[in-house]
Specification:
Length: 971
């Protein structure tokens, strides 16, 4: 078979192939003949299977035979880092074949772009966004008419988001350009009566080869990128590679307790760290995946603290390009043994041979786990080895199910992004830039050929075009030869090129601890939109914090003890757990309940471990969880719901234990809370893949919540969410970004809530408004899924049990122990940090008598009874250090009896008040005035209370907190 496949290639290429390959890989055997036959291809294969060469070798062969004009090969890949890797691999072939290859993305210099336009390469490696740019460039567009082969890499990363949606239309624009250029028929003038697109003519279309990793619905991908317009083959070789997957959850041993104390983590976490360190040490090159950037940072810091000489580094998308590249190079050279990373290393970036993959906690989706484990054993002859180090009970259940589904070959169904009005607006402008006076019907036809826009109506199209006209970007002429024609305006160029990316610009807020006045991390705008209000507590860098004040780019917080009610700062980054995985957890609960009822613990654990491929520690954790829940009297599973109500401290909770996954639980939870808010007032909502939790003002409200739940109809979620979502901060945040992509709001605009509300009112029920709603519905909710489970409830297919709680499984969510979180920070430690910062605060000292002396001292060095070394007076004022010279000048002007402004008189009054406090209280006055927001009046009130140094500082801390919480009202 191998000889037959390579025998089809040109002799020149066969010689090169013999240097690189002993025999073809399975995917090469499948793909090479089909590409040579001219078919469109969707190639499914794992990392290290030779998939890039599988598609490129036959393309090289076809290129060698015909030597078409450049640019004949277009390679589109979603990540710039992949471009660097591809260049290294492809250049070897190109150099031997005398093929010119070039790369183009956002960082390509102007000189390189000019050279590409004047001397086009045979093959161009690009990103989806860059394709949008070159489609409208005069010279590059001329070269694109020669494209014969389009390679779409890593398409599984594109079909579920707007980048893929934009690319699908871009491909139709490219095909139209090639058709128009190749048409030998006389072209009719644009806009003349009877105009017909050339799309129906038998004109050449480029051959498209799409590459993907594990994907649940290949047929959807084929349609999404219109691969089915000509004979298309889906070629799958994913199951040809051996994969070994396990789940572990190590128990703490004696040494873990001392490590836990030293690292400020729980003993269970210390045990998991020990196991990870052991695995990294025993292997040559290990990737440890976490689900969020923060987890990667915190886990990396804990590993380095536990094992100082272990060469590990962090890799995620928020790190700078240079830092990431240094980590990749160090790993490739074996200078680094382990990389703690996120999805930034899921794709095929070449970082050398990886012999093991660790997943820290559940990967939450089967496809994620398969993609990550596939990074190890980077060849078909080797086995990909991966392990999940699971955490608490929910995590262990979920990890067990995901591993089992992965072994069975099941993958989540592919979720495709539907039509989006902001992408539509951008593509209308792009086509108007390509052709002056372009017929509206032609523009509509080209866009609607893209599968995601197949249901777009002409009315929706024209509504969007008319909005672009109102925004001064487009001219809609409905009197041009009795046909509607679109003409770009001058502003269209700038707007189009500035909005090539559909990824929103995410603003970050820096978080400052008011105690130490040091940064503790960052929060993105979406988190602030969802949770950002004073009083909200959240978790960041292993500590719980309470928001005191939110500024334009800074958030002031204080450390708090207890994390049960805190929101993880990484919550928005977590990928949702699918319905199928959550249902699998429910089935496993049911299976264990039956097993525990029938067998003794030891037998049940052994049976579980053997059947599900988990170690005994994990099996014991699963068994013990269900055993405790069975003692409570009811185990919620895939067909049974437990509704429980209980008091926890001063809080009242109603918990629905539902194995429906992240998005369905959140959709139903939001629906119920929206209905109840009008009746009961504020209703707190928290959800996870296995629970919907309501925090209410009185325990008796559980009946109202239950009645509301029982009254839900399949159509209720969509109806309620359409009304309530536009009133949320999340919707507002999404609306702002959609408005930026439309050109309603400039990209760098500063705006307040009143301005945004005004914009919302003006554009209600217009395409931007509907698109913001569409984004929330598609990305944050699951309306169809919620409707289906409600239908099952109404049909009696799901049993409902109501009991007074808490049950072990219900209480688990309320008192969730987040991973790698330090124990509660003691008040003693907080005060110690504050004390140091306060005493280190530098103050300006000025003689208020003569003004000829001034100095800067930290509060700790303030004299007990200060006096001026020049005139001997004890009237020493305390001023901010940066205003020292201005303060001295003010005293001189007062002495000279010069006229002072009202503001200057106020400053002198402040100085006089502080000097009076210094004369009366000496160093204590300096300590009080060193507090942020503490002026003479507050300091005087503090100093008038009986105090020693420590109690004085505690009063200053109280004053600082109050100031931070209330200062927004006094601006």
């Amino acid at each position: 078979m191998a000889k037959d496949v390579f025998a089809q290639l040109e002799p020149e290429l066969k010689k090169l192939v013999a240097e690189r390959f002993r025999r073809p890989t399975p995917i090469q055997e499948l793909v090479i003949p089909e590409v040579l036959s001219g078919h469109n291809i969707l190639s499914l294969s794992e990392t290290g299977s030779g998939k890039t060469e599988a598609c490129m070798l036959p393309i090289f062969d076809l290129w060698l035979r015909d030597k078409p004009k450049p640019i004949s090969i277009l390679y589109i890949t979603p990540l710039r880092s992949l471009n660097r890797d591809l260049m290294d691999r492809i250049m070897w072939w190109a150099n031997h074949l005398e093929m010119d290859v070039s790369v183009r993305h956002g960082d390509t210099t102007q000189y390189e772009r000019k050279m590409q336009a004047e001397n086009p390469p045979d093959m161009l490696i690009s990103t989806p966004e860059t394709l949008q740019a070159i489609l409208t460039g005069k010279l590059m567009r001329e070269h694109l008419k020669n494209v014969r082969y389009v390679v779409l890499d890593e398409v599984h990363e594109l079909v579920s988001n707007k980048r893929g949606l934009q690319l699908s239309v871009g491909l139709e624009r490219l095909k139209e350009h090639i058709r128009q250029s190749a048409s030998s028929q006389p072209k009719q003038a644009a806009g003349t009566p009877g105009y017909q697109s050339v799309s129906s003519a038998k004109a050449p279309a480029p051959q498209i080869i799409a590459l993907s990793a594990t994907i649940g619905s290949p047929e959807k991908v084929v349609k999404f990128f219109s691969l089915d317009r000509k004979p298309c083959k889906v070629l799958n070789s994913i199951r040809t590679k051996r994969i070994s997957m396990k789940v572990e959850s190590p128990k703490p041993i004696k040494s873990d307790f001392s490590t836990a104390g030293r690292l400020h983590v729980a003993p269970e976490t210390a045990a998991r760290l020990r196991r990870i360190i052991s695995l990294i040490k025993s292997r040559r090159a290990v990737l440890t995946f976490t689900n969020t950037r923060e987890f990667a940072e915190v886990l990396s810091s804990r590993i380095k603290a536990a094992e100082k000489n272990l060469p590990v580094e962090t890799h995620h998308s928020s790190l700078s390009k240079d830092v990431r590249m240094d980590a990749e190079k160090g790993f490739k050279k074996s200078e680094i043994k382990g990389l703690i990373c996120t999805s930034s290393l899921e794709l095929g970036i070449d970082i050398g041979a990886i012999d093991f993959v660790i997943q820290y906690q559940s990967p939450r989706q089967v496809s994620k786990f398969l993609q990550r484990v596939g990074r190890s054993g980077h060849s078909l002859s080797r086995t990909s080895q991966g392990i999940i180090i699971s955490g608490e009970s929910d995590d262990s259940f979920e990890s067990t199910i995901i591993t089992g589904l992965a072994k069975e070959g099941w993958v989540e169904p592919t979720k495709m992004y539907g039509k989006a009005f902001d992408v539509l607006a951008h593509q209308i402008l792009g086509l108007a830039l390509e052709e002056y006076n372009i017929p509206a019907r032609k523009t509509y036809d080209i866009i609607r050929r893209a599968y995601p826009f197949r249901l777009l109506t002409f009315e929706e199209f024209m509504e969007t075009a008319t909005m672009l006209q109102k925004l001064g970007l487009l001219w809609v002429n409905d009197k041009f030869h009795e046909e509607v024609v679109l003409r770009r305006k001058s502003r269209a160029f700038q707007h189009y090129y500035f909005n090539l990316s559909t990824i929103p610009d995410t603003k970050n807020y820096q978080v400052f601890d008011i105690i130490s006045n040091k940064p503790v991390g960052t929060l993105d705008a979406e988190f602030i939109a969802l949770h950002g209000s004073p009083g909200t507590s959240f978790i960041c860098k292993g500590q719980a914090w309470r928001i005191l004040d939110i500024g334009k780019s800074r958030i002031n917080v204080e450390a708090i003890g207890g994390i049960s009610a805190a929101i993880p700062a990484w919550e928005g980054e977590l990928i949702p757990v699918p319905y199928e995985v959550a249902q699998g957890v429910g089935k496993l609960r049911r299976e264990i309940a039956a097993l525990a009822k029938k067998h003794k613990k030891e037998t049940a654990i052994k049976t579980l471990a053997g059947k599900h491929g988990i170690n005994p520690e994990v099996a014991e954790k699963l068994h013990d969880t269900i055993k405790k829940q069975t003692s409570y009297g009811f185990v919620p599973d895939d067909t049974k719901i437990l509704v429980e109500y209980f008091t926890d401290g001063e809080e009242y909770w109603v918990v629905f234990n539902t194995c429906w996954g992240s998005l369905i639980n959140d959709t139903i939870g939001r629906t119920i809370s929206s209905i109840l808010t009008a009746k009961l007032g504020s209703v707190g909502l928290q959800t996870d893949p296995y629970r919907i939790m309501f925090r209410v003002q009185a325990l008796g409200y559980w009946k109202e919540i239950l009645d509301t739940f029982r009254m839900l109809k399949p159509e209720t979620p969509e109806m309620i969410m359409s009304i309530s979502v536009p009133n949320t901060e999340l919707f507002t945040w999404r609306f702002i970004h959609v408005c930026k992509r439309f050109g309603i709001i400039s990209r760098d605009a500063e705006y307040g809530k009143a301005y945004i509300r005004k914009i919302l009112d003006v554009y209600r029920n217009t395409p931007p408004f509907r698109e913001a709603l569409n984004e929330v519905f598609q990305e944050k909710l699951d309306i169809p899924g919620a409707s289906e489970v409600i239908k099952s409830l109404n049909q009696g297919k799901i049993k409902l049990e109501v009991r007074k709680g808490p049950s072990p499984i219900g209480e688990m969510a309320i008192h969730r122990k987040y991973e790698i979180i330090a124990p509660d920070r003691p008040e003693r430690e907080i005060f110690s940090i504050f004390k140091k910062r306060l005493l280190d605060t530098e103050l300006g000292l000025v003689c208020n008598q003569c003004g000829n002396w001034g100095t800067i001292l930290p509060a700790r060095d303030f004299p007990a009874k200060p006096s001026c070394p020049r005139c001997g007076a004890g009237l020493i004022s305390i001023v901010p250090r940066r205003y020292l010279l201005e303060a001295q000048d003010l005293v001189h002007r007062r002495i000279s009896r010069k006229k002072l402004s009202e503001e200057e008189e106020s400053h002198l009054k402040h100085m006089s008040d502080t000097s009076s406090l210094v004369m009366a209280s000496g160093k204590d006055a300096a300590i009080a005035l060193a507090g942020r927001g503490v002026g003479p009046r507050t300091a005087s009130r503090i100093l008038n209370k009986p105090h020693d140094t420590e109690s004085l500082m505690r009063e200053v801390l109280k004053a600082e907190r109050k100031y931070t919480q209330t200062k927004r009202f006094w601006r």
